[in-house]
Amino acid sequence: MRVELLGLATTLALICGTGAAAQDLLIHGGPINTGESSVEALAVKDGKVAFAGPLALARRTVPGAKDIDLKGAAAFPGFVDAHAHLSGIGFREMTLSLEGTASVEDLVARLKAWNIANPGTGAVSGRGWIETHWPEKRFPSRQDLDRAIPDRPVVLGRSDGHAIVANTAMLALAGVTRDTVAPAGGHILKDAAGEPTGMLIDNAMSLVRGKVPPPTAAAKAEAVKRGVDLYAARGWTGLHDMGASMEEVGYQQALAAKGEMPIRIDNYMSPQAAGAVLASGPSQDPTGLVRVRGVKMYMDGALGSRGAALLAPYADAEGTGLILTPRETIDGVLKQARGSGAQIAIHAIGDRGNRLVLDAFEQAFGGDAAALKTARWRVEHAQVLAPDDLPRFARLGVIASMQASHAIGDLYFAPARLGPERLKGAYAWESLLKSGAVVAGGSDAPVEKGDPLVEFYAAAYRHDLKGFAGPDWGLDEALTRQQALALLTRGPAYAAGRETELGLLKVGAPADISVFSVDLMTAPFAEIAKARAVMTVVGGRIVYDGR
After folding, report:
1. CB-side exposure of 168: number of CA atoms within 13 Å?
2. pTM greater than the 0.85 cutoff
3. How far apart are CA 153 and CA 123, in angstroms?
4. How confident is the model over 236-276, as pLDDT tens digits?
5. What angle do CA 321, 327, 329 make, to 5 degrees?
6. Are 130 and 160 in contact (CB under 8 A)?
7. How far apart are CA 525 and CA 495, in angstroms?
8. What are phi and psi of 537, to 5 degrees?
9. Backbone φ, ψ for residue 350 (5° rounding)
10. Pick from 85, 125, 161, 495: most CB atoms within 10 A?
11. Is the Cβ–Cβ distance between 198 and 142 less than 8 Å?
């Protein structure tokens, strides 16, 4: 994987590292879907779509343009990830990645190998494990990590970012014992003897995270660069960065100023970094590629670690989940945002978490649904909805920002967590669209891979990547292919207030184009799962060319 990434970095350096300007382009030779119809050719001039239609007329529109023969590949409006974590995507490629870990024993083996390859005494951190498919049917423990590294502090994040496991050395360094009380909105899992297992959920993660040395400024800048380059190479033309810091936005702006920002970024700041946008409203850099839209907050935790806030107890364990941010804190931010025009995005996964967010939004506007719709406030994930709450999204004009890939992973364990009745309101993309709600599609990378093809596949097919679907996977909630395309193009454009510019390849619109090796409208789903990005164009600039 690292060799592949180095190759991608070299390719992208040649394409966008020199500050490549928009080119006049003639695109033809494969299916071209404008988001509304299919055309034979696209003409791009001065960074915008100048013509969409017959090839002969397109040639006359841009004489002397760079000729792009797709050779059977398929072009679409630019795919935008409506929910991702940019720095996390970059750091995933720079640190111990535990994606694809097959069992507790595999995790231990990978950790041992990392320790041998990276000797020292400093803390070891990694991310990406998820236990739902493991034969052991349990979370990893400090004892498991101790078998791999007993003499260095170790902390490993679950893929959803809502739980970590620490070894004994890390717990000792952080002073976490059987007597430690978990902070509000967090859990310290303990064994039958009352000792910490090493698993820390949601706000309890803060007990050890402060003991891990923060990355250097150079590493943070590299993570941002790796993240945007990787996203361009996967066919994304934009990303909504959730929970960004001012430092991260600064790195983005520096890349844009040098002509090295290949994609568009809309930032939703962490509460700690949201002072400026809450006071003055949205802003953008001189290039228009880096924008600050609003603030991202958390209402509850994640379903896999049982932190999602439910209206009734979990079906497979005691408890109803966690509320991570007090309502009074959320209400204070909403009041500031309404005054400045900052956009609000709140993470809510459980049915109780979603109801609380919808209630808070409605009350912030005094029941004025028209004003709330204009504000474009968003619920991030909207994963489990009570029947009475699903139609509220459309009625209130609240955007459901959802990640199709969550369903094809979570549906291995969601039925056990929720039970059959609640599962009917889970991952309900089709029901939300049918109700009239706007749904914006994303990936939540690095929780998921961050691949537009996986997100399209999951939205339209709702099977796992091997083609399997369980009997209770709610296949009636799968989208049509055209709906899935809109989910990842027009939906994110609307969610960021850019629907007049982006989401369709229409004359006068910025030429943001995603090209894939198969036609997503006709290819068998098994082929989509194995397809790749071929070219990415942003504002007429070819920022990735993998032909």
Report:
1. 9
2. yes
3. 5
4. 999 999 999 999 999 999 999 999 999 999 999 999 999 99
5. 120
6. yes
7. 27
8. -120, 130
9. -75, 165
10. 495
11. yes
- Residue 115, phi then psi, degrees to nearest 5: -65, -40
Could you read off the pLDDT of 352-374 as tens digits, one per residue?
999 999 999 999 999 899 999 99
Q: C-alpha distances in angstroms, 78 versus 108, 287, 325, 518?
A: 40, 18, 34, 15
Radius of gyration (C-alpha) of the chain in whole angstroms: 23
Q: What is the model's pLDDT at position 20?
A: 64
pLDDT bin (cut points 50, 70, 90) of residue 9 is very low
pLDDT top residue among 234 and 7: 234
Residue 167 in contact with residue 149, Cβ under 8 Å?
yes
Beta strands in 290-350 (DSSP E): 290-298, 343-348
For strands 25-33 and 186-190, give the pairing. unpaired
Residue from 27, 63, 23 nearest 45 by CA = 23
Structural element, H or E, at residue 147: helix 142-148
- H helix and E strand count, the chain: 22, 23
230 in helix, strand or coil? helix
Name the pairing type of β-strands 513-516 and 154-158: unpaired
Using an 8 Å Cβ cutoff, are 83 and 403 in contact?
yes
Alpha helices by DSSP H, listed for 237-290, are: 246-257, 275-280
- Please name the helix (run of DSSP H) or strand (run of DSSP E) that holds residue 364, with its range, or none: helix 351-364
State how far the Cα of 260 lies from the Cα of 252, in Å rounded to an integer. 9
Where are the strands (E) in 78-225, listed by range? Answer: 79-84, 96-97, 124-129, 154-158, 163-166, 186-190, 196-202
- Amino acid at residue number 365: F
Residue with token string 């995603």: 514
Helical axes 246-257 vs 217-233, angle rounded to 10° = 60
